[in-house]
Write a structure and sequence with these properties.
heterodimer, A: four-stranded antiparallel sheet, B: mainly beta, five-stranded antiparallel sheet
């Protein structure tokens, strides 16, 4: 498996501001993903973070709202821009391909975001 | 479009009972299926992964089965313990993609 950390673990933000969430993995991975879990809901994929190129976004998610960076094989950031209360969710980073293990996705502890 | 459904949404049983959680999916063209556990306010812990060519996987007191043709998977928990209390999520990976499609989860409570 992989050890995944996320910062911050939680935050309370004012509407109209932006928050950048960091995801750090203890080993190089081939794939990194960002998911959102709205209150009482299941997980929805926001985008796949591609190293050295633009992220691939799912339907309903756009780069202007959720810019993503992935500068290397162990680190990625997700920014939630111009936040509104509807953005209050848990944001989770997941990885695949750690230590040569394919097919299985491992998840970070999540970032709990509350927007007032 | 792949849809994943988990029944029941919530389940409460006394300690020591064996129990079954259900997961169904609409498109049988899956690559694999993964069961996760999520504790309140926490991330996901991977429990079991079943490849599309497999019928079941076991880990300790957990056994997951897969019937791809009927679009169903079950997670069997033997001799349940209070520490098993959590939300259990199943997710399918679509063939040709890395994307996981999640069910809504089953919130399990084991009463001492």
């Amino acid at each position: 498996s992989a050890v995944i950390s996320q910062k911050p673990s939680r935050d309370i933000c004012q509407r109209g501001t932006s928050l950048t969430i960091q995801c750090q993995v203890d080993s190089q991975v081939t794939m990194m993903f960002w998911y959102r879990q709205q209150p009482g809901q299941s997980l929805t994929l926001i985008a796949t973070a591609n190293q050295g190129s633009e992220a691939t976004y799912e339907s309903g998610f756009v780069i202007d709202k959720f810019p993503i960076s992935r500068p290397n094989l162990t680190f990625s950031t997700l920014t939630v821009s111009n936040m509104s209360p509807e953005d209050s969710s848990i944001y989770l980073c997941s990885v695949e391909g750690a230590n040569g293990v394919t097919d299985t996705q491992y998840f970070g502890p999540g970032t709990r975001l509350t927007v007032l | 479009k792949q849809e994943v459904t988990q029944i029941p949404a919530a389940l409460s049983v006394p300690e020591g009972e064996n129990l079954v959680l259900n997961c169904s999916f609409t498109d049988s063209a899956i690559y694999n299926l993964q069961w996760f556990r999520q504790d309140p306010g926490k991330g996901l812990t991977s429990l079991l992964l079943i490849q599309s060519s497999q019928r079941e996987q076991t880990s300790g007191r957990l056994n997951a089965s897969l019937d791809k043709s009927s679009g169903r998977s079950t997670l069997y928990i033997a001799a349940s313990q209070p520490g098993d209390s959590a939300t259990y999520l199943c997710a399918v990976r679509i063939q040709g993609a890395q994307k996981l499609v999640f069910g809504q989860g089953t919130r399990l409570t084991i009463n001492p």
